[in-house]
Here is the input.
Amino acid sequence: LRTHKDAGEIERIRRATDYSVAAHLAAMKAVKPDVNEREISALMQYEWGKRGCERPAYAPIVGSGFNSTVLHYSDDSNPIKDGDVVVIDAAGEYAMYASDITRTLPASGKFTARQREIYDIVLGAQQAAVAAFRSGKSNLKRDDPDSLYKVAFEYINTHGKDKHGEPLGKYFIHGLSHYVGLNVHDDNDYTVPLGPGSVFTIEPGIYIPEESLGVRIEDILYVDKDGKLVNLTAGLPHTADEVEHAMSGKP
Ligand code: GLY
Ligand code: MN
Ligand code: MN
Here is the structure.
């Protein structure tokens, strides 16, 4: 029952996502040097709460600088510093259904060349996984010919290098995807292919502690009745340019 969501369930996840997208857009305008991570977390909870979300779907993560490389960082207690990136993994729950969204922002409003290089590789990995998707065939296993994880890992491992000239695959330290529903990490059958009614994330990341540089981009998607992949987070900036533009406050 939980592996294939019906239209009513997808509608609840869509609303949780829409309200969380509004919160991310507010965060993009509020992130600046010297603002505390907790202020951003509080702002986001206010933004999705006033729209109808009952609670956060999970402990919000607002991690700047070195904290951007710490996977489940949720202290959210540090001042954001000029030159840092800020990983914001935060979303609300609506009518008992979760959303799950991450964006990575430059504190100053502009990515450095190195931050942008890593950002573009993470985005490229996400786009490669989306392009590889085939309804009824693709799956969320780690090691399988139809694994979306493998597509993203290969992309990351063949683009860019660390400061020692090593490939970046070893800095992609978590899975690519999980199902979302009543729980943010929803209990589902991970052995079956993705198809109509599947709701899941695609969330590649690169975390380089030595550079205090972590980037994750997490979207939530579902497969419609015709097998088409629909991005519920399409309304949020994706590219580095789009993120910088949203932070600038310009129309
Ligand atoms: N926010 C939890 C996760 O992305 O899996
Ligand atoms: Mn997730
Ligand atoms: Mn997340």
